[in-house]
Specification:
InterPro entries: APOBEC/CMP_deaminase_Zn-bd (IPR016192), CMP_dCMP_dom (IPR002125), Cytidine_deaminase-like (IPR016193), tRNA_aden_deaminase (IPR028883). Helices cover about 40% and strands about 20% of the residues. The protein is α/β, with parallel strands linked by helices.
Length: about 140
């Protein structure tokens, strides 16, 4: 029951909330022991803060929930590949696993030849079509 798809659907729900707020529709959840401990979506427009990416919000929320700065034994599910800033924060958090919906060939950390913490497992392509479609729809409406 608790598959990568199960939790990615929750991240996609967060992306939909962002879409409704006219934020770039990226969402994520942080899971520990099959329990969602943080949910977040982009808030850069709402907070007028370029660092208010979904991942940054989720990292902070999860760390507060756990009472410490490290997210060992946690998994972050994110609808779009993290940017350089977010990948740095994820690396510092020592998160155990990152599950990516859609790749971001232009702004994502993978094509920038960056890596996360050496012990972090990365899985990509979970619900890729759904995760990329919402972003494409958002930017199509902006043009």
């Amino acid at each position: 029951m608790f598959t990568d798809e199960y939790f990615m659907k929750m991240a996609l729900q967060e992306a939909e909330i962002a879409f409704e707020k006219d934020e770039v529709p990226i969402g994520c959840v942080v899971v520990s022991n099959n329990r969602v401990i943080a949910r977040a979506h982009n808030l850069t427009e709402t907070l007028n803060d370029v660092t208010a990416h979904a991942e940054m919000q989720a990292i902070t929320s999860a760390a507060n929930f756990l009472g410490g700065k490290y997210l060992v034994n946690c998994t972050l599910y994110v609808t779009l590949e993290p940017c350089v800033m977010c990948s740095g924060a994820l690396s510092w958090s020592q998160i155990s696993k990152v599950v990516i919906g859609a790749r971001d060939e232009q702004r994502g950390f993978i094509n920038k030849n960056l890596s996360l913490h050496s012990k972090t497992e990365i899985v990509s392509g979970i619900m890729e079509n759904e995760c990329s479609s919402i972003v494409k729809e958002f930017f199509k409406a902006k043009r």
